[in-house]
Amino acid sequence: MTKFFKHTYTLIILSSIYCLDMEPIDIIKKSANRLNDINIEFNVDIKQQTLITKPINYNLDFKVYWPFKDSLFFYNHTKFNSPLDYKDIELWLNYNKDTTLVRKKLPIDNEISDVDSNSDNVNIINFFNLIDLLDEIDNQSFTLKSTNFNNREVYYIKVFSKKQKKKSTKIYIDKQNFNLYKIEWSDRRGRIIRKIIFDDWIIKNDIDFFSTVLFEDFKDESKITCKLSEIDFDKIDDNDINVIKSGF
User: What are residue 147's phi and psi, to 5 degrees?
Assistant: First the structure.
């Protein structure tokens, strides 16, 4: 699969910000870390489309496990159900601050091996890990506005380098619950080259969570649609934990 996954996550009147006593970076951090310490699991159907190839459909089960509260240490486990050539492939990710370890198991030999963190398979995992957002906004400048998005009042944050103001990342975050709704990436000429939208929000166990993700890369002319189902929180049991840890 293409490498659109990895930086799924770079993340509004100034007086509103000051009234909340929050800087732009604080708003982005609060949104990026909103689901920290919550064990999450779901099934996802992924449809990958390009102009020159036939659509490819994937189905996988995805789990996030936080063994320690109030830390940046967590595990991911992904298991593919389809297509046939991906069936029963498993991926494990261990994230600890600035260190990311990734391992993979193929059903042909059931051996677990190390994987390059930039490989295409790993990008599937990173697509659902919003924590990468913080890595992309270090030492950047910000502008802030308040705007409306899908009838919700949101913070509109533009992240850019002082040397290249048109090359930017635009982030839309809900003012009330800090849900992340959309990210747009622009090139040096100010043209939108990629965007990701989190949509069809549900509330379960008092937690807001998206059930649809749409990613478009206008440069590669590709489109990815993810439909999440069987979403659950803090239901991972001991057997799940053993599987999630078994990759390491």
Answer: -145, 180
Amino acid symbol at 199: D
The superfamily (CATH) of domain 14-246 is Lipoprotein localisation LolA/LolB/LppX (2.50.20.10)
d(CA 151, CA 168): 24
d(CA 50, CA 188): 24
Structural domain spans, the chain: 14-246
Structure confidence at residue 11 as a pLDDT band (50, 70, 90): very low
| Whether 39 contacts 235, CB under 8 Å | yes
List pLDDT tens digits, range 197-207: 999 999 999 99
Contacts of 131 (CB under 8 A, 6+ apart): 9, 32, 33, 72, 95
pLDDT digit string, tens, across residues 24-56: 989 998 998 899 999 999 999 999 999 888 999
The answer to whether 80 touches 58, Cβ cutoff 8 Å, is yes
- Predicted structure pTM score: 0.84
